[in-house]
């Protein structure tokens, strides 16, 4: 039996990608959906773009994606919550395929392994993937398990029962599992495309957000400061730039690690976890 799906999109300064994202979600083959966009105090033209589309719009003071998703869930009328990103676009059968394990009562939530890089031709996008030891065209490795602790969809009743996402910043989608104690199941043929950072400023801002993530205690955070310090960055960056025959990787590594380093300091000194 079909269930209504509430697609929730937290947005913070996504003007470059929003048109394609919203167009792809409004054109889904699964018809019983609503789209809820939560503007996390964007400072660009995101709001004007969102207002062009038949979606539910909500605004919040800048607090990060976890708070935005939780706000969207409070206003959702669907039985299934699906979390999308403003810098992604989606195959027309994405939602239909993504929720199949839930409709078949095989899982309370799902994720997809078929996430591809939307801009693999860009050198900084390539460096981003190489830094993660991934093929430049894929966001998820071929050997990734079929069960995972990160959720793209979840039954709303289960989500609300555990109080939604914790406000930990980066990778907030991993915060459901410790409370839910159930894995998300991989959905076949749920294809999406995700833009990697494609400019030096984007590389720095993304890295800073990663560093601001609140998943580590003080001791581990201090250890991460060593990992992302300049001497380590120089050694690793030089080695990998030779290994991959990409001189730009050296520049990427210096900028990326500096961004993470700054983010860790932000997290330790100001408890700031949003972008």
UniProtKB/TrEMBL annotation:
Gene3D superfamilies: Spore Coat Polysaccharide Biosynthesis Protein SpsA, Chain A. This is Glycosyltransferase 2-like domain-containing protein. It comes from the Bacteria. Residues 6-154 form the Glycosyltransferase 2-like domain. InterPro entries: Glyco_trans_2-like (IPR001173), Nucleotide-diphossugar_trans (IPR029044). Pfam families: Glycos_transf_2. It comes from Candidatus Ryanbacteria bacterium RIFCSPLOWO2_02_FULL_47_14.
